[in-house]
């Protein structure tokens, strides 16, 4: 099903071509970071738009990201009114508003400092541990997802954070306590893991938050440790890992 965001994206593309901001469909596709074939599929309503194209249409053509995501405001950013933010730098989406972000494909999402403007505008989603697998799957295949709470924290976005998750025990105390929010970046499929750093690991037995270390004696496993000495070190076999996300920041609660 084509999302409302994709329909607004198509309208913006038509306006860009009409105003001569791109010479033709091929030129527009190149500036959006996609192929002419994919842009044709999107314009024909056969595919939803991905985050890279959303980022590029916002950055390269000054399309108003608030209008693109929610339908509020004007099509172009120089005409838009600023959204209302909470004084503490937090933005929250109500349940009804969150439905408007369905149908965004994130498989093309760049890492590091090249975070899509969409993520910076809407904020990082707070994902319950039990929903992590579904969330990561939805960002990979572009399927709709419902997220009801987002936090706008620019420092986390600049570090490549993609979501927040809540610490639910004291195994990583004193670094992270029960209830703290951890900003995470999915590194699944990467051959480079920063040993000694804290990661969120989704396994067949559930989600755990541990420091990861290379296991020299067993290349088919990694060593998982807790900062709290009451929790013993253990080995986790690679075949049992579904996803790995690195913690790049945190919000502590006293």
From TrEMBL:
CDD domains: HTH_XRE, S24_LexA-like. The keyword Ribonucleoprotein does not apply. GO terms for molecular function: DNA binding. Residues 26-68 form the HTH cro/C1-type domain. It comes from the Bacteria. Keywords: DNA-binding, Transcription, Transcription regulation. It holds the Pfam family Peptidase_S24. PROSITE patterns: HTH_CROC1. InterPro entries: Cro/C1-type_HTH, Lambda_DNA-bd_dom_sf, LexA-like, LexA/Signal_pep-like_sf, Peptidase_S24_S26A/B/C. This is LexA family transcriptional regulator. It comes from Candidatus Enterocola intestinipullorum.
């Amino acid at each position: 099903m084509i999302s409302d965001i994709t329909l607004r994206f198509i309208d913006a593309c038509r306006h860009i071509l009409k105003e001569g901001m791109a010479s033709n469909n091929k030129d527009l596709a190149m500036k959006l970071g996609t192929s002419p074939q994919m842009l044709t599929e999107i314009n024909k309503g056969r595919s939803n738009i991905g985050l890279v194209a959303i980022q590029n249409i916002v950055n390269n053509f000054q399309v108003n990201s608030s209008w693109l995501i929610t339908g509020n405001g004007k099509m172009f950013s120089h005409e838009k009114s600023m959204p209302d933010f909470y004084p503490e730098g937090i933005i929250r989406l109500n349940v009804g508003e969150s439905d408007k972000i369905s149908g965004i494909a994130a498989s093309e999402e760049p890492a590091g400092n090249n975070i899509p403007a969409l993520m910076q505008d809407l904020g990082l989603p707070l994902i319950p541990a039990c929903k992590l697998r579904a969330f990561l799957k939805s960002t990979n295949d572009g399927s709709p997802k419902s997220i009801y709470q987002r936090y706008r924290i620019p420092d986390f976005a600049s570090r490549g954070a993609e979501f927040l998750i809540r610490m639910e025990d004291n195994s990583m105390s004193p670094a992270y306590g029960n209830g703290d929010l951890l900003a995470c970046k999915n590194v699944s499929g990467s051959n480079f893991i920063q040993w000694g750093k804290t990661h969120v690991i989704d396994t067949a037995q559930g989600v755990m938050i541990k420091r990861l270390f290379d296991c020299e004696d067993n290349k088919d496993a990694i060593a998982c440790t807790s900062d709290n000495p009451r929790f013993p070190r253990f080995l986790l076999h690679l075949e049992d890992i579904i996803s790995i996300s690195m913690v790049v920041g945190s919000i502590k609660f006293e």
